[in-house]
Design the sequence.
DNA sequence: TTCGCTCCTTACCAATGGGTAAGTTTACCG
DNA sequence: CGGTAAACTTACCCATTGGTAAGGAGCGAA
């Protein structure tokens, strides 16, 4: 049963991807270290050797996905001018990241099942707030009332989440098609 | 430590409310029967006596919230004419239900952490699909392409979810204020 | 060949999970 | 008063959980 020996860096990367998958599938509470390990073709102590604890592993997945996602969004939004363009660019960044990685991975940032007041909960909140800031910059230009802008930002993010979830179920649709669809859907809203 | 004796019907209602709360807070996997029982001021076997199993309890919470929510939405949407009115009415129904019950309870329908392919997962999917049907009826009138309508419906539902989550954090805002805010936010979108 | 480092496993621990058997208390009713 | 049913608890079962200790196996270097 001895698995093939794999260099640490490579194994860590594999663990990160698989753990992200499992956390997205089952949520923080529902994911078990045993399952993650066995899906890596390895046993539990390896996970603890490389990532210290379940929290540590989750945090690693979170930054792994979070930094990539935010980088993709920021890059995509950099060239956008009007608020409408910014919103569409955010979505496009999201879609392209999801396309080139795994469509379900964003879920690790919007997972709801980690223990309240834990360091993991705080960290996810941090990433959510960074994404919120990006969208809210655009909404603040559209709405005169700051609270309206805030609510609209949250609504937009929720819509994006939901679209991503929907997209996961339709693997034949590309990121570009998805962006075009979004343009049609949001059409009347844009100025 | 013996808790006050309470008639079965009353105790069941209390258990349902508290279990719904806990399931919303922690997700299906993260919620423990022990915690639910102790928050009811009762011990675990009582839960099993009245609800058979964790799945049974969750299903009871689900229909408890689901039927109420859908009834509220359908009642509110009954008088709506145009698609825009239907969307706003759906949201108003949602808000009023949340207002008179508990703002976080809808979460039991949109929880993500139950075991895949379980009877609970199927049941939640059923309620989601009923809500989807209501919204999609409106979207189908707006978009000529059925897939666009589908995507738009999911986006709207996601936006609603997100707004509810946001609303939970702002207890001083009433359902009516929330509906008015939604009208301002969605304004440009409505025809 | 042997040392030593890295990768990896077996085998365990205490705590907690869902779930149950069996018995105790309380209140109402004849 | 005495009995009986409903409300409730104690005390347990076993599987699984997060987590760890200790040792084995492959491999490059000297």
Sequence:
């Amino acid at each position: 049963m001895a698995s093939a020996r794999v260099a640490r860096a490579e194994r860590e990367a594999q663990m990160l991807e698989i753990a992200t998958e499992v956390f997205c599938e089952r949520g923080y509470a529902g994911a078990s270290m045993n399952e993650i390990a066995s899906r890596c073709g390895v046993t539990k102590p390896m996970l603890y050797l490389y990532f210290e604890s379940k929290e540590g592993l989750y945090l690693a997945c979170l930054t792994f996905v979070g930094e990539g996602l935010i980088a993709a969004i920021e890059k995509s939004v950099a060239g956008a001018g009007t608020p409408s363009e910014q919103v569409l660019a955010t979505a496009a960044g999201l879609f392209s990241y999801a396309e080139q990685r795994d469509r379900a991975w964003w879920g690790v940032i919007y997972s709801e099942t980690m223990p309240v007041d834990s360091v993991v909960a705080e960290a996810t909140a941090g990433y959510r707030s960074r994404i919120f800031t990006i969208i809210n910059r655009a909404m603040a230009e559209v709405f005169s009332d700051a609270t309206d802008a805030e609510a609209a930002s949250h609504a937009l993010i929720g819509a994006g989440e939901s679209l991503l979830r929907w997209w996961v179920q339709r693997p034949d649709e590309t990121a570009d098609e998805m962006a075009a669809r979004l343009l049609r859907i949001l059409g009347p809203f844009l100025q």
About this structure: Chain A has a mean pLDDT of 93. Residues 1-3, 5-8, 11, 42-46, 49 of chain A lie near DNA strand C (CB under 10 Å from a C1'). Chain A touches chain B through 39 residues (CB under 8 Å).
